[in-house]
Amino acid sequence: MYEKGTQKVLDALLNDKFTDGIIGPSVKMLGPVKNGGLILYVTTPGCWGPMITPTIRGGHEVNVPVAVDDASVGDAVAISIESIRVRSKATSSGTDRPVNGAYVGDPYVAKKCPNCGEPWPKSALEGIGLEAIKCEKCGSPSSPFRMVNGYTIVFDERRCLGVAVREEVARRLAADGYAWMDIPRNSRQFPVIIAAKADLVGLSMRLRPFLGQLGTTPSVDIPDSHNAGDFGTFLIGAPHKYAITEQQYKECITDGHLDIDSVREGAVLVAPVKLDGAGIYAGDAHAQQGDGEVAGHTTDISAEVKVRVNVIKGLNLKGPLLFPPLEDLPPLAKPMCVEEWALVKRLANEYGLEPEPWLPVQVIGTGPNINKAAETGFSRASELFDMSVDEVRNRVTVAGAVEIGRLPGVVQVTLPVPVKKMKELRLYEITKKLYAPPFE
Fold first, then answer.
1. Do 196 and 225 belong to one domain?
2. Which residues in 177-186 are b (16+ Cβ under 10 Å) and which e?
3. Measured between alpha carbons, how far is 285 from 303 in angstroms, rounded to an integer?
C-alpha cells in the first residue's frame, strides 16, 4: 500500500526486490517516483523457476511494486519501455505437467509436499533434475511440476541468437544453473535450467526480449501469475487462502500478466490504476516468443529493464491499452504514409467526403478462453471509444486484427480510432510520437 506525502519523491529508482508470489494491497510499495520518473528493474526469470520453488506462492516472482506520486484510483499510467537487456546466458523451458498430491486446487499457488503434506515446504536442491528439489522436512521431491517436452538453449554474447543443446551440455549447464541464468541476489527461486531437458536439439532461434508481466497492482491480494482474466478465473471460489469472489475478479485485477510479445523495448503500455500510487511492477521477462504463448511457457530470463511512467488523470480504464513498436502493428493497422494519405484525401473528395484521420490502438482483452477474451476486448473498446460493439468489430475486421497473447485467454484487439477521440482521451501524444501520422 502507499500513503501519499510520507516519503521523498524520487526522480529515479532501482528496484531489485521481489515478492513471494503474492501481489496486492498488503504489499508495501517502493518509492514513490515522480510523475515522469524512471524505474530501473532487475527482474527474475518468470514462470518455471517460481513454479518449481515450493515456497513461492504464485507462478512468478515479480518485482515489488513502485508507487507513482500523482497516481490515484481512476487514473491510468503510461509505462514507456525504454530498454530491456538480457542478463541470462542460457535458459530452459517446455510444456508442463503438475505432480499429483503436490498442491491444493492450484499447483501454481497452493503448493504442498506430496509426501508429508507440508504447505509451501522449505526445500533444498540436491543435484540436477526437477526431482532434485527436496522437502527439508521429509527429504522427498517437493516440486509441484515436471517438464514434459523441454529444451535448454544457450545465447550468443550479444544476446541476439540462441540454439538448443544436447543433453550432455544441458546437464553441464544445470550443474551451475544460478550462474548461467544469472539469478538476481534477492531472488528465492530455483533456476529452471536444472531440469537439463534436451528434446529440441539443434533448433536455432532469434532473441527479441519482452516482459510477460508489466502493469499496476490489483486491489485484492492474489498470486502474481493470476493477475489476468484467464488465470484469474482459477481463483474464483478456489479451495485455498487466495480465493476471490466473482465480483473481485471483475473489479480488482489489472491484467498485468499479459505474455504479449510486443510488450518490449519501444512499446508503451497504458494500465489502469486501482490503488493509490498505482504500484508499477515488472517481471516474467522472456528471451523471445512467437504470436502466442501456446506452449504455456517460453524462454524465462533475468533482465535489466528501464521504464518511464506518466500519469493520465481520469482515464478510468477497465484494462490495459498497448501501443507497440510500429513494426509490430498488424499490416492493415499501420498508419498510412504521406503518399497514401494524399491519395485517400483525393479519393474521398471525389465523393464529397472528408476522410477520418485515425491511429491504431491495441485494447487488451482477457477471459477464460480466446473467444471470451476477444469479446472482453470488443466491450472495452466499445466503452472507451464510445462506439457500438458492432462498430468495433467492423473496424477490427477492415483495418485491425485480433492477435493471441497467451492461451487460454489473452488477446490484443487492434482497431483504428479517430484522432478526435484519441485527443479527447489524452492518448494522441503517445501515438503521435510512436507512429508519426501523415496528417500532422
1. no
2. beebbbbbee
3. 7
Cα(57)–Cα(188) distance, integer angstroms: 11
pLDDT tens, position by position, 356-378: 999 999 999 999 999 999 999 99
| Residue ranges making up the domain that contains 111 | 91-206
Residue type, 248: Q
Residue 3 lies inside a defined structural domain of this protein: no
Same domain, 81 and 214: yes
Asked if residue 123 is part of any domain, the answer here is yes
List the grid coordinates of 190. 530455483
Q: Do 84 and 214 belong together in one domain?
A: yes
Instruction: Tell me the C-alpha distance between 253 and 255, whole Å.
Output: 6
Instruction: Give pTM, 2 decimals.
Output: 0.96
Same domain, 142 and 276: no
Instruction: Give SS3 for 95.
Output: strand
Contact 389/379 with Cβ under 8 angstroms? yes
Q: Which three cell numbers stand for residue 344?
A: 485517400
The total of other beta-carbon atoms located within 10 Å of residue 15's CB is 21
Bridge partners (DSSP) of residue 418 are 358
Residue segments in the chain with a per-residue pLDDT below the cut of 70: 1-6, 440
Q: What is the CA radius of gyration of the chain?
A: 22
| Residue 440, pLDDT score | 66
**Residue 367 carries which side chain, given as an amino acid letter?**
G
Closest C-alpha among 13, 48, 24 to residue 183: 48
- The DSSP line for 401-431 is EEEEEETTTEEEEEEEEEHHHHHHTT-HHHH
Structure confidence by residue, pLDDT tens digits, 9-48: 999 999 999 999 999 999 999 999 999 999 999 999 999 9
Helix axes 389-399, 370-385, angle to 10 degrees: 110
Q: Phi-psi category of 339—alpha, beta or left, where left has phi over 0 and alpha has psi -120 to 50?
A: alpha
What pLDDT shows up at residue 2? 65
Helix (H, G, I), strand (E, B), or coil: what is residue 170? helix
